[in-house]
Specification:
The chain is mainly α. It contains 6 helices and 2 strands; from the N terminus they run H-H-H-H-E-E-H-H. It is about 75% helix and about 5% strand. The protein has a two-stranded antiparallel sheet. A hairpin with a 3-residue loop joins strand 1 and strand 2. Helix 1 packs antiparallel against helix 2, helix 2 runs parallel beside helix 6 and helix 4 packs antiparallel against helix 6. The longest helix has about 35 residues. The chain is elongated. The protein starts with a helix and ends in a 13-residue tail after the last helix.
């Protein structure tokens, strides 16, 4: 189990690095767009009209790539003040219940996200904005990301079960 979890962690790190690379690329693209709109460097080129749309899609993709890594690292949003105020064992049970609910929600998103992407693919749906793309291209990362989040929820549950019967110490906002 430890070897699988380590390999999975490496996969999530690669995905987080890819998210960082996308943010860097998006930053360069936005800067180029602003520069080309305000300075006539290339005759006939007045900005990058597709940059706003590509930025929107990139932000979505960055979120899908980084979310499983953020959960693994304990860097997600977490309200733990109640967990710190109740007895340790009750806090552990709350952690377990939250992970179980998260797993169930992630699996629902996998099922419905896969169905939406498949329906879009099978119907040949396209999005028409500045860029014309098959709709399923933007829908496909959703079930993949939530499947990875579900896998991380299982690993979290395993780590919680193997550890001390107390709330987690990651991402703690109070001491």
């Amino acid at each position: 189990m430890r070897r699988v979890e380590t390999a999975y962690g490496r996969l999530l790190e690669v995905m987080a690095l890819a998210a960082c690379a996308l943010i860097f690329g998006m930053t360069l693209m936005i800067c180029a767009d602003v520069l080309l709109r305000n300075v006539a460097l290339i005759p006939g080129v007045d900005g990058l009209p597709w940059s706003n749309e590509l930025s929107e899609t990139t932000l979505y993709l960055v979120t899908m790539l980084a979310a499983p890594w953020l959960l693994r690292e304990g860097r997600h949003i977490r309200v733990d003040i109640v967990l710190r105020a109740i007895p340790a064992r009750a806090g552990w049970v709350c952690e377990w219940l939250c992970d179980a609910i998260a797993l169930a929600c992630c699996m629902c998103m996998v099922i419905y996200g896969t169905q939406a992407a498949w329906d879009s693919y099978s119907q040949g749906s396209i999005t028409i904005k500045t860029l014309v793309l098959p709709e399923w291209w933007t829908l496909a990362p959703l079930p993949v990301a939530f499947l990875l989040l579900a896998v991380e929820a299982v690993f979290r549950m395993h780590r919680l079960w193997s550890g001390e019967r107390a709330p987690r110490e990651d991402a703690v906002s109070s001491s």
